[in-house]
Amino acid sequence: xxxxxxxxxxxxxxxxxxxxxxxxxxxxxxxxxxxxxxxxxxxxxxxxxxxxxxxxxxxxxxxxxxxxxxxxxxxxxxxxxxxxxxxxxxxxxxxxxxxxxxxxxxxxxxxxxxxxxxxxxxxxxxxxxxxxxxxxxxxxxxxxxxxxxxxxxxxxxxxxxxxxxxxxxxxxxxxxxxxxxxxxxxxxxxxxxxxxxxxxxxxxxxxxxxxxxxxxxxxxxxxxxxxxxxxxxxxxxxxxxxxxxxxxxxxxxxxxxxxxxxxxxxxxxxxxxxxxxxxxxxxxxxxxxxxxxxxxxxxxxxxxxxxxxxxxxxxxxxxxxxxxxxxxxxxxxxxxxxxxxxxxxxxxxxxxxxxxxxxxxxxxxxxxxxxxxxxxxxxxxxxxxxxxxxxx
Length: 392
Prior knowledge:
Elements: H1 3-14, H2 18-33, H3 40-47, H4 51-60, H5 62-80, E1 94-104, E2 114-117, E3 122-135, E4 138-141, E5 145-146, H6 150-156, H7 163-173, H8 177-180, E6 188-192, H9 199-207, E7 211-215, E8 221-224, H10 225-230, E9 238-239, H11 240-246, E10 253-258, E11 266-278, E12 282-291, E13 300-304, H12 311-319, H13 326-336, H14 349-373, H15 377-391
Parallel strand pairs: 1-6, 6-7
Antiparallel strand pairs: 1-3, 2-3, 3-4, 3-5, 7-13, 8-9, 8-11, 10-11, 11-12, 12-13
Helix pairs in contact: 1-2, 2-3, 2-13, 3-4, 5-13, 7-9, 14-15
């Protein structure tokens, strides 16, 4: 399979302007094949084009990446929305996952870079909020949300908005019908970790008629269903960890779950579950969970506004949460579309990348053999090598 064949296949699916087609297809093919280091230097070395062309593409034509991602996302979503099935016996068919990604940087010199506390220390980089649509077993990246710090907004004359405010605005304007057509709002579930435990985010989800499973921070205020009926709205709230400490009468129930590994191991999770009220949001199902064999480990507190959901469904649903840029998402979707020349038996993303690399390597070897077999081919090939080395 020639590299030109797959580049033509990519070009037909992204529909960019003719003068940008070569750069866009070369960059996407690079992201589809190379799994180690994604840099402009590596992209230039892979494609044989100058680094400045890729730099200009990313700097001057950022909207092309956005529109390309949106077009690819909608195309794939419509394809798989025709036969939606519930996952793992859950009452929801359409999952929207919210998670954050830090794009590492070596220093603070790039614009909008910040220092983040990333669990095991501080990390310098750019922050993105990823929005992912999960239809069955197909994961479809939607347009991510960049976070701009106050200094960057002041420099570029932009209005500053916090990450939570940007997520709320995104959810309010997200029209799923553009992606999957008509759907039942009750079958939509939004998943997020405690970093997005925010009343405005939760109300934005509920206002659209969707459901959510969100991990709560330890200091989030809740009250029992009984107290919600018998006390004033402004009183008797307590932190979620204190709530489950006071309700020790709730029995632990063990849930056995399959892990995501290849060995098909199982893990036991014990949970406490009750109905309650989440402050500023309303009625929810509350779950306290922890690994059974690690009783002193970290407990997770979950809230779900779908009152039909069981504790098992809430825990399984939350575990589906999946944790950057637009062109990488485009490459991911294109790999799912099965590029030409790949065997139908190649299913996983890693196997497809490996097959593409091998195919391109074999093409290069055939090109070398063809050159060497021609009259004066050895000298011609030596000249090509000298020119390539002189250009590095």
